[in-house]
Specification:
This protein has helices spanning about 10-15, 25-35, 85-95, 110-115, 130-135, 145-155, 165-170, 215-230, 245-255, 265-275, 290-300, 310-315, 330-340, 345-360, 365-380, and strands at about 1-5, 45-50, 60, 65-70, 100-105, 120-125, 160-165, 180, 200-205, 230-235, 260-265, 280, 305, 320-325. α5 (about 130-135) packs antiparallel against α6 (about 145-155). It has 15 helices and 14 strands. It is α/β, with parallel strands linked by helices. The radius of gyration is 21 Å and the shape is globular. The strands form two sheets. An eight-stranded mixed beta sheet has the order 3-4-2-1-5-6-7-8, sandwiched between helices.
Amino acid sequence: MIKLLLVTTDNREHHGRYELPDPWLSAPVLALINGFEQFPADIEVHVASCAKQAMSAPGKLAANVYFHQLIVPKIGWGRSLFLGCAYAVRKLARRIGADIVHGQGTERDSAMAAACSGKPSVITIHGHMGRIAEFTQAKFGSYYWMASRLERWVVKHSDGVVALNTYTEARVAGHASRTWIIPNAVEKEFFTDHPHPTSNSHGICVANIAPWKNQVSLIDSCRPLLEAGTCRISFAGGLPHGTPYSDAFEARLHEVPGISHLGILSPSAIRENTSNSGFLILPSLEENCPMAILEAMAAGVPVVASRIGGIPDLIHDGETGLLFDPNDPADVRRQVGRISTDSHLRALLGANAQAEALRRFHPKVVAQAHIEAYQDVLRATRT
């Protein structure tokens, strides 16, 4: 049996929601844990999350899944390059006798803690900090500047990278000691026989409002369709206030018909809104393995999205969804128009997408692939 220490973020800490009663883990981590639950004879999982102050926390998340909350003073976080978090995880790894440590994401402390754990380690790259730093032209000393450099360091100092697609595999080529292409898992609640409304020309875009998510350009490209009533689009995600981009987005909410902003949705509300939409649209300029696409596919909802980053690994154009060039307004408008007006096409793409999701993104399938990756690392490090 493998004893895994899975290091991840409790979003209560990230968002300062210390009063919430339960750990707030990301959707791909929850889905992976759900998959590990189905292999109690093969893997014992210890989930660790660092926090600046104590919160309520269960001892176990499932029969073979334990939860550890590690309290780290503020000085041990970003300004120290997360060395306080790394030290706390290292102590826990020794105490529980972990065989391997897996850091989920390079955005904050998780990957750094795994690479410094003193145990065989792997990391998963969810959002490419290096690419976002390039895109935003991150200045010296800024968050994305620092995160991009930490990402580069942990890739070189871990025993392997779980690449969610060929896009990530190519970006870490020559730096990672080994890679495995394993996409994110989707929580089992999305895999439902509930029929989606194929007659619905209402689309949903699930992404925080940000320049690289490209919502403003989407609205401008589709404005003729929206003004004609050909489609409607709802946007779900956080909206920071007082930035030039958020101001531009909010201005369009008042000017352009057929669009709305739903704000930050709970996981259950995301499931409900996605399942009840005619299609999902994602116009991003940078993406790795967006959960919004995986979740829509699992629910049988057709997807129209940018032909960039890791998205072409998820969507087969014309078979399980439609792809467009996000920098070509006419192409965006054409594909959104197609999926908005053709209910037969939506039904076909949605059914094909759901079959693909069952084959590739089901929790049990993804968990099995992770266990095999851990076994690869342990065999290599024990010889």
